[in-house]
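Batch job 17 of 40 flagged for manual review because the log was empty.
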Amino acid sequence: MKNTILTTQVMGYFDRLRLVKVKDILSQTMELAETQSISYLSFLEKLLAAEVAHKDQRRIEMSLRVSGLPYIRSIDDFDFNHVPTLDQRLIHSLFDLTFIAEKKNILFLGPPGLGKTHLAIALAVKACHSGFSIYFTEMDSLIKKLKDADTDTEKQRTARSRCYNKSSLVIIDEVGYTPLDRYECNLFFRFIKNRYEKNSIILTSNKSFSQWAELAADPIIMTAILDRLLHHSITVNLQGDSFRLKYQNKGLA
């Protein structure tokens, strides 16, 4: 590409419009257009498609970085052979993300080490790639955030709520490991109520629903929480031995 005044002006426009990828590939795309006699419209489409793909990738990377996800997982990495009772068709159907559009919740229940968090994270990653806002938190961390927000000013509360209240999908991991006092039950109820029929939740727990009440200082509020969680939900029960114990035993063999 010749270094002309016009080229300098065009590059300046790219900078002002923040068309980073277009600026980067302009020269090679122009050469391709000349050698293959590409139409003006096709030339423009190639530039814009590359810019859109670049911006989408940057959006995904940024969204994953601020989502709170502890790591990245895919459904392709999940070992279904270790959980043979799991309905593979059901699990794969969740990845069409219809549950988010329908404002449904997904509840993964079962003993530790069966891949509940893996499945939750894989769904979150898929949702992020599909343009949905996501947020991951462990239950203990969520309760702490809710307590902090409860004492915030209105301005501070609004800023905090963008993360865990307004996201299209919130993943709450490790529910049921620690008991909740009455105040914490109330905070969790308000959180669930605020998201009810508005946005989706994925929740993982090593406790059955009947055991949740035992961990709550206020069983009545916990019943109200479960009522809203289960109203529009898909419950997936995982059964078997821990992945981690399996590999640990192999190492000892």
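Reviewer: the log was empty due to a logging misconfiguration, but the result itself is present. The chain has two domains: 5-59, 75-252. Unflagging and moving on to job 18.
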